[in-house]
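Re: duplicated header lines in exported structure tokens

Our pipeline writes sequence and tokens for each protein into one text file. With two proteins the header for the second block appears twice in some exports. Here is an export where it did not happen, for reference. First protein block:
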Amino acid sequence: MTETVQSSAGQVGRGMRLPRTARRAQLLEAAQYVFVANGYHAAAMDDIAERAGVSKPVLYQHFPGKLELYTALLETHVDELVGRVRDALASTTDNKQRVRAAVEAFYDFVNSEGEAYRMIFESDLRGEPAVQEAVDRATSDCVDAITDTITADAGLDAQRARLLATGLVGLSQVTARYWLSTDRAVAREEAISLIATLAWRGIGGFPLQH
């Protein structure tokens, strides 16, 4: 299935047809810009359609309303963050490097273009159940992934491993956002090394279990 769109500066030109999946991705990209710039409540579907270079009927063909569009976009960002953390943990069998890779995953996500992290960690729509569920999943799924690794390697029970995993996620997420808010006053590599060292000195105190 393809669709035709109107022209918009820097976007798909008039008459160009896109498959449905490509159109959806284009609409989400436009929505990302508008939601981050204006917040959910001030964002308008008109603005998103204009940004994407489509008519409002085309936008509504994919998303029945602003909340559905916002939630779909939020879910894609949550999936991206969780995927980064899981990939980081799977990238090595050296636990010290795993800790660094996990910290780095949060820093790179926060530092990525489009400021996707704002929709997860600074959403102005947390009172909406679907949004809160997605925001909670961003933390819980990352904690789950790290818990599994700590449980297997440190021989801790699930509750203690989960507490440590929550600490690592919180440490990584909060410091990454702080680092960005200071205009990256500390070089990226050094910032990641500092936080990874802090985390490892705690987690590394638990001996490997085989």
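Second protein block, exported in the same file:
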Amino acid sequence: MLTVQQAVFTVESLISKVQQQKQLIHQLVQENEHLRHEIKQLRKENEQLKYRVQELEARTKKNSSNSHLPPSSDRFHTHSSRQPSGNKPGGQEGHQGTTLHQVEHPHHRVVHRVNACQGCGASLCEVKPFKVDVRQVFDLPPVTIEVTQHEREVKSCPHCRCVQQAEFPSYVTNHVQYGPRLTALAVYLHHIQLIPYKRLSDTIEALYQHSVSTGTLANMVKRGRQALESNMDIIEDALLDSDILHVDETSLRINGKLAWVHVACTSRYTYLASHASRGKKATDDIGILPRYQGTMMHDAFGTYPKYMQATHVLCHADHLRELKGFIEQGHTWASRMTTFLLAAKQAVEVHHGALSEKEAKRWERVYDRMLERAQHRLETMTPLPKKALAFVRRLQKRKEEALRFLREVHVPFDNNQAERDLRMVKVKENISGTFREETFAQSFCITRSIVSTLTKHEKNVWDSLCLLLTGDTLDCVLSTT
């Protein structure tokens, strides 16, 4: 039998072991809690990293066809979003081509005579031809710079001795100067054909055998800007009176710094202006949007809705590009939304620009259901696709602006008009890289505005520029037949 001392020792030993077990259990519980917390943190970090990878992959896949990025930013070739027509390249069957036709009154006639018979050697100089074959060659005449001397008479009246003198034309201001047509050529080739000054100088010397320095050409372009600038008010007034106004902006570098070119335009008029700011300060300074009270077409940029006096419309070309990006990320709802928008566009075109109220409401109900399902699907995804969800919520919130084209004939489906009018800004930037001064950018914008307006009115750009640089106004040029 155990003695009392042995029993006590046994009990104490058991108690010690129990305490050790308790400490071990407590330690294991703490370690388990720590591991649980660590696993939770790792899962959270893993979700964040997955979202970040997804975001970076989407960013690397962005180009002009699936985002707001301009085509000039594409690093590699991207396929056009336009669907194949199935037609062969070149003129289509039934197309009326244009070709040269002989004119009744040519500028020059060259007669190739038959003077002798190659058979017997007899003279045929006095023999009348029984047939004349006619061929006409269309070509450029030799070009050269002409010097016109302007002489102003000064007379003294024999009766009152008052001295009278004739007036020189408004563009004749110096004893020796270049004329408005050469100035128009410099403006046209530099701002419209985007030829840099050095190449422009070389071109004029090669074509006209006359050397003009790059500094002189820059001064010509500057004088051209001064002659054209007053016509911008005419364009501005026409835009303010229009039912629909397309607005947009794109980046541009001036003296190596980021700046912006803003456009306000219609199918008939174009107004471009450069500014250091992209937002409301720029559009306020330019001055058109604060006074416009019609329907303003634009993308989802936050500046434009701040002009509450205008009615607003969202561009679906932007939406289709964004949806294409979401489709590439595997969002099936985006494919259905794309089909919906294109079908709605086609339905409006079939109904000559606007649907009946009943039809419009039917399309609205489909629109609401599709976005509601897309939102529900996105909210259940892990990680949460924030950009896609923000896109869907934007279409829900701004439903009236997105679907206004269903009911109003003057409202287009997209803002392609503004994008087309901005395109040459990016081409210019690709060629020149940057404008050296703000005034050069302003000169470019003014000239492109005038030329774009002339083109929209189907006016000959060269002839019209010559008229404007000799003092005619844009209203006068546009009204001529």
